[in-house]
Amino acid sequence: MANPSIRAALAAKDFIVAPGIFDMISARIADRMGFKALYATGYGTVASHLGVPDAGIATYSDMVGRMSRFAQGSTTPVIADADTGYGGLLNVRHTVMGYEAGGVTAIQLEDQEVPKKCGHTPGRRVIPARDMALKIEVAAEARKSDDFLIIARTDARTALGLDEAIARGQLYRKAGADIVFIESPESEEEMKRIGGEIDAPLLANNVDGGGRTPILSAEKLASFGYSIAIYPALGFLAMTAALETAYAHLRAHGDSAGLPDGALADFGAMNTLMGFPEVWEFDRRWARPDAAE
Predict the structure, then answer these.
(1) Which Pfam families does this entry report, sorted A to Z (predicted)?
(2) Domain of residue 99, residue span
C-alpha cells in the first residue's frame, strides 16, 4: 500500500531528500537513517541485478520484483523508476498496477523512445508529447489510491531545448502527473526558470560523479520551487569505490590486514542490519530440549 507521507510532505512544502538505493543492503542502510523517501534507481538496480547498462534491456518482469522487494523491506516510502512504463498504454497500466500492488509509493515514468537510455547520457530521444500525456492519463486512472503518486519525467531538454521541456512538463501536469521531473537542466538559471514556469511539485535529479545538472542544496532547490531531490548514484558510486579499494588491497597484499580504519563495516553490525538477532531469538524460543540427543 502506498504511504501517504510523501503526499502530505508535498502539501506541507516539506522538502524531501531521497538517497538512491539499488539492492537490499543499500535499502536497509538508508531505511534506518530517517529519510522521508528512498529512490530506487533504475541504473543501480539494473547494474546490481543484471550487470548490464540501463539502456532498455531490463524488462518489467526484471524490475517489478526488485522494486516491490525494496518497498516491502523498508519502512520508508519508496519512489521507483519505471522507465517508459515498459511499452505502450496497456503496458503502462500493467506497470502501475504491479508497482502499486508491490507497495511502491511513487512511480517515475519518462517520455523517451524505446529502448530508453539512462538520463545524463547522450543520444536520448523522446516520443511525441501527446503520446506521453496519454501514458500519464492511463497511469493516473490505473492506480487504486491517490497516495500512489505519478512522477512524469521528460528528457526533452537535451535534444529539443528547455522551452520544449517546460512545455512538456506543463502538459504532463495537466494530464494528471502529481510531480514533474525535467531531466538534465544544465544551469542554475535553467532550474530557476523551470521552478517559475511549472505549477507543480518538482523533482531535481542530483547525479554525483559527473552529471549534466549542477548539484544544489535543498535550501536553494526549495527557493527555486522544487519539492524533491534524488541522489540516485550516490550509493552505488560509494560502494564501487569502497570495493575497488578493498579488492585492490587484497590483490596486492594477499590478505585483508592493513586496510585503513573505517574501510570495512563491523561484521556484528552487519548481522544486526540483516536481521540475524531475530533469527537467533527464534531459534532460542523454539529449541527442543532433546535436540542434542
Answers:
(1) PEP_mutase (PF13714)
(2) 5-239
Q: Is residue 279 part of a domain?
A: no
Grid cell 505549477 is found at 199
- Tell me whether residue 285 is in a domain: no
Joined grid coordinates for residue 49: 541485478
Residue 120 lies in a domain: yes
Give the per-residue pLDDT at 124: 83
Burial class (CB in 10 A: 0-12, 13-18, 19+), 99: buried
| Residues in CB range of 172: below 8 A, 6 or more apart | 111, 132, 133, 136, 152, 154, 180
Q: How many domains does the chain have?
A: 1
Beta bridge partners of 175: none
Say which CATH number the domain at 29 has. 3.20.20.60
Mean pLDDT value across the chain: 95
pLDDT at residue 108, rounded to an integer: 98
pLDDT above 70 for 209: yes
Phi-psi region of 13 (alpha: psi -120 to 50; beta: other; left: phi over 0): left
User: Is residue 283 one of the residues assigned to a domain?
Assistant: no
Cβ pair 49, 69 in contact under 8 A: no
Number of alpha carbons in the 13 Å side-chain half-sphere of residue 3: 19
Least confident of 82-86, 101-105, 212-216: 212-216
Q: Three cell numbers at 113?
A: 523512445
What's the predicted TM-score (pTM) here? 0.94
Residue 119: which pLDDT band, with cuts at 50, 70 and 90? low
Scored b (16 or more CB within 10 A) or e, 108-130 reads bbbbbeeebbbbbeeebebbebe
Stretch (H or E) spanning 123: none
